[in-house]
Design brief:
Blueprint: H1 3-22, H2 25-39, H3 70-85, H4 87-92, H5 100-106, H6 108-112, H7 123-144, H8 148-163, H9 166-172, H10 179-184, H11 209-225, H12 230-246, H13 249-264, H14 270-288, H15 294-300, H16 302-313, H17 317-333, H18 357-365, H19 367-397, H20 407-422, H21 431-440, H22 442-445, H23 458-474, H24 484-496
């Protein structure tokens, strides 16, 4: 590792101390975590032979032979600073059921290790790396994004992290990627996909240009969620233009999907929340079987050839290639479905690797570990959406307007879109793990209150339920209530609300 990298680590440590000394702990924690991802070197890569495409570099989401990764350092320094500067918050932290997911995934190298003769990395080292890279952001979210104010702070931090990429976009968008080479030495993916239709896609100090593309796209989505005034709209416009200029087609599509959902507002239906995961599991099973006739569809069918042509026209030349690499190794990835191979480099004999993260994780540690890793990102948002759907049903029954689209709803989109990107991209958007950790907090998925609204005691909620029940039983179809429905509803409140605290039998 070059001397400049050690200098960067030392300056990063000093900056972290200053931030936790002079700024509120929540702001300092997010600044350290996101700043480390923006500015630190990726890690100590193994030597890459000249002229060879380094397909074996899988990214920091899978424990491998990359030493000193920023995924571990950024989380470790942020957590250490928080522990020193804000110990009271750590004492108030309590486990929640969804915390079992990061434990199951991060400890997967340990509980699958006895079934492997030669695991790589060593189980203890692999678990430590996963605990810092995956568990660290999750824990930061549990600490500082467990309530509405904390999530609003995180949303602003993500917008700032997107704006911090603007100098990188200006310096590398026209000339091409060069910053990492100039400061930290050669980057193995410096030229991979860099040249675009208009100029170049920057890479900055990220793992890959794909990671830069999804970073600026999802941070632009955070900016759109904060576009409430003139300044917010102007900043959101800058972020959207920056994401479009990166010309990462998949990331732009995800940003567009998120923007549409932001504009429509949160109206989840429980039937959709059940049906969509089941359909996704079915499609995942078919995809993992390796039996999809991709080449036949693309070459021998008219609609397949047209779809491939449109993809190439839009700049998505790598889409078909990524799918083909996954299909080559899908069966091998799930050859030992419960424990995997125990090695990050299980694909080396084939001379290629799956480009999507799910098959890489399944091949290394098995399907249960993969389910836990994806569950870390998906389940907190799903639970939030399920409960929001229940609130929406109550709002409709009581003739009240639906809850506005708040910071929690905007953040809930980011882990879902991150999983969508990870299906064909192994370079993960790690801040989504912090978002998921915040949503997993008990207060973040149960009894969340609307902006400006006080939390209702249980007895009031019981009174509302009793009023609805009485109204259904007393209002006969076709028989108008004396005094009109408005007067009847008011009288039901008078007689039922005082009894809802304990004299239910008198109703």
């Amino acid at each position: 590792m070059p001397l400049s990298a050690w200098v960067a680590y030392a300056l990063f440590a000093l900056a972290a101390v200053a931030l936790f000394r002079w700024r509120p702990p929540a702001e300092a924690a997010w600044a350290v975590f996101l700043g480390g991802w923006l500015l630190l070197p990726v890690g100590d890569w193994p030597p890459t032979p000249a002229g060879r495409f380094p397909y074996w570099i899988t990214g920091l989401a899978l424990p491998s032979d990359v030493g000193g990764s920023k995924a571990m350092l950024a989380s470790a320094v942020a957590l250490l600073g928080s522990l020193v500067a804000d110990p009271g918050r750590w004492r108030r932290l309590r486990p929640v059921p969804l915390d079992a997911l990061p434990l199951l995934w991060c400890l997967a190298p340990l509980w699958t290790g006895p079934w492997h003769a030669d695991p790589a990395p060593a189980p203890l080292a692999a678990s430590a790396e996963a605990l810092l890279a995956w568990g660290g952001p999750w824990l930061l979210g549990r600490l500082y994004a467990a309530d509405a104010a904390g999530r609003a702070t995180l949303l602003h931090a993500l917008r700032a992290a997107g704006l911090a990429c603007l100098p990188i976009a200006l310096l590398e968008g026209i000339r091409g990627p060069w910053l990492h080479d100039a400061l930290y030495g050669p980057h193995p993916f410096l030229e991979d996909g860099a040249e675009r239709t208009l100029g170049f896609r920057p890479i900055g100090f990220f793992e890959h240009g794909n990671q830069y593309g999804v970073w600026v796209a999802l941070c632009a989505l955070a900016g759109l969620a904060l576009a409430h005034d003139r300044r917010g709209r102007w900043l959101a416009g800058v972020l959207v233009v920056q994401a479009l200029a990166a010309q990462s087609v998949g990331a732009i599509v995800l940003m567009a999907i998120g923007a549409v959902l932001l504009a429509v507002g949160p109206r989840p239906r429980r039937t959709w929340l059940v049906g969509l995961p089941l359909a996704a599991l079915l499609l995942a099973g078919v995809y993992a079987s390796g039996r999809l006739p991709i080449h036949h569809w693309a070459r021998d069918t008219a609609w397949g050839a047209k779809a491939l042509s449109l993809s190439r026209t839009a700049g998505g030349n790598s889409l078909a290639w990524r799918v083909s690499q996954d299909q080559k190794l899908a069966r091998e990835a799930i050859a030992r479905p419960m424990v995997g191979s125990g090695r990050w480099d299980w694909f080396m004999d084939r001379g290629t690797r799956p480009w999507g993260l799910p098959l890489l994780l399944a091949g290394a540690y098995g399907l249960p570990a993969l389910a836990a890793a994806l569950g870390m990102l998906l389940l907190p948002s799903w639970v939030w959406a399920w409960r929001r759907a229940g609130e929406h049903r109550v709002d409709r029954a009581d003739d009240r307007p639906a809850a506005p689209f708040d910071a929690t709803a905007a953040l809930a989109l980011l882990p879902l879109l991150t999983v969508g990107d990870a299906l064909l991209n192994s370079f993960l958007f790690f801040p989504a793990l912090a978002v998921a950790g915040g949503l997993a907090a008990r207060g973040g998925v149960r009894g969340s209150k609307r902006p400006g609204q006080k939390r209702q005691p249980i007895r009031r909620n019981l009174g509302r339920l009793l009023r609805r029940t009485v109204l259904r039983k007393t209002e006969e179809p076709g028989v108008p209530t004396e005094g009109g429905p408005r007067q009847h509803r008011a009288m039901s409140r008078i007689f039922i609300r005082p009894c809802s605290g304990g004299c239910v039998a008198s109703i």
